[in-house]
Amino acid sequence: MIMIHEGRKAIDLSGTWKYRYETEKTGGNSAEDFYAGERHAEDGWKEIAVPNNWYLTEIGDYFGTIWFQCEFETPEYSKEEHVWLRFGAVDYTADVWLNDIYLGYHEGIFNPFEFDITDFLKKDGGNRLFVRDSAPRDETEYINSGLDKNTPLSEPYQRHQAKAITQVKGHMIDAMHRPGAMTSFRQDGNSAGIWDKAELIIRPEKFIEYCKISTRLVQKKDWLGDGQDKDTGSAMVSLDITLNNMTSATVTGSLRGDIIPDNFEGGVAARSSRNVVIPPGRSTVKMVITVEEAKLWWTWDHGYPHLYNLVLGWQEDTVKIRFGIKEIVQDDAGQWYLNNKRIFLRGMRYISSLWMSEAGEEMWKPDFEKMIRMNINSIRIGSHMEKDGLYSLCDELGLLMWQVFPLHYCVSDDDDMISRASDMIRDMGMMLTNHACMGMWSVYKEPEIYQLPDKPNNYFRLCHVLKETLKTVDPVRWVHLGDYREGVMNIMIGCCSDGDTDVDDLIIPPNIVEFGSQSIPCLETLRTFIPEDKLWPPHWDTWEYWGLFYSNTFEFAKVELGNSLEEFIENTQEYEAVSVKEQIEFLRMKKYDPVSSMYLYYWSDACPMIGSGLLDYYRRPYKVYDYMQKVYTPVLVCAQPCIHPYKLGREKIFHVGMSYTARVWAINDNYESISDVLLQWKVTDCETDEILCRNSFRLELLADSAEIPDHIVLPLGEELSGHRCRVDMKISSGNEVLSENDSYFRVEP
After folding, report:
1. Which of 334, 336, 346, 690 has the most CB atoms around it within 10 Å of its CB?
2. Do 655 and 514 belong together in one domain?
3. Are 604 and 618 in contact (CB under 8 A)?
4. Phi and psi (nearest 5°) for 123?
5. Where among 147, 167, 202 does a domain terminate?
6. Does 577 lie in the same domain as 484?
């Protein structure tokens, strides 16, 4: 059960703990059997910092079981209070003992869990806590897909596919950009450990355990006017409040709720109360509070992310929960509406780190500030979960969140897996649903992406049950079953699909939740994970392990190796930069026809490797970083060459005797029209610097629009044979440049 712990009296158990590897079993498989063998072992214990992922310590990339222990003093608490032991996150399963008493078991990588330890605390001495953390390799079989048979890769480093993973870890167990990514070593880089805080939480014996907040903007039919539904300016805040009465008697009293501005000025916005009768145990009651003249939560680019605090009081307990008032819905065409206004999502997929203990505001805040400067208004957390602080920061900054449950690629579809995953997705919903930034959910990253003939039936078995379970927590927001269904697709031109794809032949859905490519990071970063003797000529097994993906690089992207390591790096970075830029232009030219959202594959690499981020693990930029900044602006001007086949990331070839023709697009994602803007373009011969043609004119950029206000038509004479030409474009308003862009083409005989 997820419980409110914020704001309560707490004792942080972070610090230096002791650890040791589990010794060989001496018989039995129960928790008590394991404990009997480890409890009295005094030798072999070493010190370790907690919280931590053990990969980041001297333990390294170990798969198995580690025992942890610490001692703490009994905190001060009254006879009307209870003490709870709370773990923020333990990867992957945990058995817990306190003072030789077995408290219980937990499975899951991200979800917190608690034990009431009041009756087990020592009144006059130290308490001894043991945690048995098990994070073995999943026992799934890995099968060679056969896709890398014609490469220089040895068999273990060829592309392998898990048959049926049974652990719910998503990206942290199986994904493209992690150590051993597509090889037989896919699970390397273990994310195990007590990676979030352990703490003691003190609550009264009659307390507010949990509250689910739903908000709805109120409309009313204008019967005496035009008969249309009209916004009233008010909002309903609907609360499902779980109260826990740990006494043996029924209690009667008032449940009180105040709604108070958090990040803007104002007095109490709304107040309500009701009398409740609560028997021993848990009870859930409903309370509805209407906020007149509600201040709404908006993404940063369309308004202000107003936040409120809900202050709940019952008996002697008081809790405070921050939330925002908004509605985010999807229409039948797959378009998104925030607070009844259509919104185009310029998105980014994000993962802080493969080892979450090292993530925090000092990492997130610079990342998100750069994202906002790059005009990103939405984030997709794909197949993992971040610490709660990340979502709180998105609440404040006005970044809309698309959260994916931690399942990725090929997992088991048996009944036990479905049951266990359903418990965890319920926790995910309860943990995140009150965050103002939460926009939409996916229950699975890619449930049908396999390269094996015998596939688990995850989409029709696991995904539907997960959706049903999540809907019990959040019946309001859109819940997506999995990529490549329900108007959602990934394109990844030149990375996961052929770089020679004619995109005019693609059926593009409304929501592109992954686009992008990949490249090799700078030499300084490359040397942090590839040994010097493996760098050049490339030792292909080593490079594949660290994310090169030989087939993708040379068969899809068709990047040239070049004559040196530096040249190879430059070739990959240049291809990624141009490919991503043109993918963005292509998708934005399809704004609302039908594209409504687009998410670059990654902001930064989750670990030191060859990745698909704008930044590498050390936050050093790839070349694509500057290219993307140019075309992720709210106002965009770009040229669409009239060429067939239309290949993104490839040089655009026209021939002598033809005309270079292109549509000039002007795209405005702002909610306001911009009048009297100046659009200019010119075509220049790069060999001679001669301007071949040009045009400039004034126009009004309509609000939230994508239009073709002009065409370029340039006859190509013999004098241009073999020349490269550049198209320069600009949209400006007064002295302000709203968009500046360019593209290239080559003239051949």
Report:
1. 346
2. no
3. no
4. -75, -25
5. 202
6. yes
